[in-house]
């Protein structure tokens, strides 16, 4: 039976901590995290001055040429000689024209009135690049994917989109508390990468994590219930939107503090290598993917982890989801060299730029990078140029970004693009795709129904897993602190 969302009771979700005296900060409880997040995330705290779309109208450098193939092997073997110049560096690849950030160039010129001088690094770009060539051939022999693969990618992207469109509805109906950040528009990245992984491989995400969890196989029910704060959620309702976690699927967390997940991912990759090389578990070839945004790349943890990953040749792929904005801060305005992929070669690993609105191109690059990690050849930095179709979070009215820019990227919707490819290449019919849309609608409806009917966590769960030594903390079913119970002898933590 399909649930009519118009009839959902919007008042059944009390914020647990609101009714309970809390003598200590509940570091990991969803409401408090949400509160902290509010301080960080609130669009209300942004300066009220009009947005400056870009500070540098005409001073962008002449675009360099980019290489025509992703060729990480060029980076795998030899170290960079210290005295190598860009002329004689064997790793320097002549570059060809690329659409990189060029997509916004016109808009930048149009909308910018500021005239800041931007000092740019000169010299040849030392980087491999995207340009997984589009195959124009109609022959099925030369297609980038099989029919089955195409349908799987389509289904996963539609799941991500439909699931989150539903999240927006539920959020505005008061079913979710805290902040909720959607991934609309960026689905090609999650799908293009994660659908190539094995169960044992790990994924680390940010607060924009629902779709990564879904792509990795966490059920729509478990993710929706987590968003609803219910016991059936993948963190038993204790994590909420920004903290998806699944041990079974090796989703090692969504992280609310930017850059926080990158060291965790680096540690997971280190674990794989340690198991294989030190503990001699020969079949341990697990790969870790770390997803994070463009703004996060200006954070120190990014650089530290790139260094360690390259130094120890860890099986990790750093996937930058460059949606050109960090809340209301333009990437071009905040970053000394906006071409993030170029930072890979600075640490001795390949850096690749790819059109993140094209799932097939993302997938081709992902195959190379994941394969490289699995073969023990070390890390790769992949920058996916993308765009979020909604505000930073559902609390953001999204008034800062230029409508022309939004329209520009809306026309590149990755789902529409894949649909077109599948139909034009006779890999799927309209009817095939409609059937998938319908199936996903049902999955999402059912997930909402399930989440809505699931129980809220008991009060006693509120302080679980918060303190290293749980003795003395926790609230019993009677609402009293367990430590005040004379019979209290055991800890309260249960996982
Ligand atoms: C350490 C830290 N500093 C600041 C913030 C506040 N903050 C939340 S999101 C965000 C922008 C991140 O932008 P980006 O990395 O591009 O990711 P996107 O939201 O675009 O996916 C910032 C600065 C935070 N969460 N953590
Ligand atoms: Mg961003």
TrEMBL record:
Its cofactor is thiamine diphosphate. It comes from the Eukaryota. One of its GO terms (molecular function) is pyruvate dehydrogenase (acetyl-transferring) activity. Keywords: Oxidoreductase, Pyruvate, Thiamine pyrophosphate. It catalyses: N(6)-[(R)-lipoyl]-L-lysyl-[protein] + pyruvate + H(+) = N(6)-[(R)-S(8)-acetyldihydrolipoyl]-L-lysyl-[protein] + CO2. The keyword rRNA processing does not apply. Residues 156-457 form the Dehydrogenase E1 component domain. The keyword Oxidoreductase applies. One of its GO terms (biological process) is pyruvate decarboxylation to acetyl-CoA. Its EC number is 1.2.4.1. InterPro entries: DH_E1, PDH_E1_Alpha_Subunit, Pyrv_DH_E1_asu_subgrp-y, THDP-binding. It is an enzyme of class 1 (oxidoreductase). The pyruvate dehydrogenase complex catalyzes the overall conversion of pyruvate to acetyl-CoA and CO(2). It contains multiple copies of three enzymatic components: pyruvate dehydrogenase (E1), dihydrolipoamide acetyltransferase (E2) and lipoamide dehydrogenase (E3). Tetramer of 2 alpha and 2 beta subunits. This is Pyruvate dehydrogenase E1 component subunit alpha. It comes from Gossypium darwinii.
């Amino acid at each position: 039976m399909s649930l009519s969302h118009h009839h959902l009771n919007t008042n059944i979700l009390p914020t647990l901590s609101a009714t309970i005296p809390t003598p200590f900060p509940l570091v990991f409880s969803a409401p408090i995290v949400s509160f902290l997040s509010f301080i960080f995330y609130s669009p209300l705290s942004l300066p009220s001055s009009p947005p400056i779309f870009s500070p540098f109208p005409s001073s962008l450098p002449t675009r360099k040429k980019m290489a025509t193939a992703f060729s990480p092997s060029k980076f795998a073997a030899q170290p960079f000689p210290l005295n190598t110049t860009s002329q004689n560096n064997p790793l320097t690849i002549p570059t060809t024209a690329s659409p990189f950030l060029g997509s916004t160039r016109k808009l930048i010129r149009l909308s910018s009135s500021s005239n800041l001088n931007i000092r740019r690094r000169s010299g040849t770009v030392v980087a491999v690049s995207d340009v997984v060539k589009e195959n124009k051939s109609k022959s099925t022999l030369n297609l980038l994917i099989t029919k089955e693969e195409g349908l799987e990618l389509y289904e996963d992207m539609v799941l991500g989109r439909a699931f989150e469109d539903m999240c927006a509805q539920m959020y505005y109906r008061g079913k979710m508390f805290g902040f909720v950040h959607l991934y609309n528009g960026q689905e090609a990245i999650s799908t293009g990468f994660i659908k190539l992984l094995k169960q044992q491989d790990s994924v680390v995400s940010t607060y924009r994590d629902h779709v990564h969890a879904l792509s990795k196989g966490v059920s729509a029910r478990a993710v929706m219930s987590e968003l609803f704060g219910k016991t059936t959620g993948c963190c038993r309702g204790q994590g909420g939107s920004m903290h998806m976690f699944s041990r079974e699927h090796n989703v090692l967390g969504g992280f609310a503090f930017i850059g926080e997940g990158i060291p965790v991912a680096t540690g997971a990759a280190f674990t794989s290598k340690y198991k294989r090389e030190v503990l001699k578990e020969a079949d341990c070839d697990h790969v870790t993917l770390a997803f994070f945004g463009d703004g996060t790349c200006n954070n120190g943890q990014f650089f530290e982890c790139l260094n360690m990953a390259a130094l120890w040749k860890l099986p990790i792929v750093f996937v930058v989801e460059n949606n050109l904005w960090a809340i209301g801060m333009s990437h071009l305005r905040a970053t000394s060299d906006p071409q993030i992929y170029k930072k890979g070669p600075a640490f001795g690993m390949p850096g690749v730029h790819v059109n993140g609105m094209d799932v097939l191109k993302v997938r081709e690059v992902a195959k190379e990078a994941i394969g490289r990690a699995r073969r023990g050849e070390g890390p790769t930095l992949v920058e996916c140029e993308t765009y979020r179709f909604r505000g930073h979070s559902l609390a953001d009215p999204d008034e800062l970004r230029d409508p022309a820019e939004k329209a520009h990227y809306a026309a590149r919707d990755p789902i529409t693009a894949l649909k077109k490819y599948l139909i034009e290449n006779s890999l799927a019919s309209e009817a095939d795709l409609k059937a998938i849309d319908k199936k996903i609608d049902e999955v999402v409806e059912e997930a909402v129904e399930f989440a809505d009917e699931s129980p809220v966590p008991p009060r006693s769960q509120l302080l679980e897993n918060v303190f290293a030594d749980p003795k003395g903390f926790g609230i019993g079913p009677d609402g009293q602190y367990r430590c005040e119970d004379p019979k209290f002898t055991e800890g309260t933590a249960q996982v």
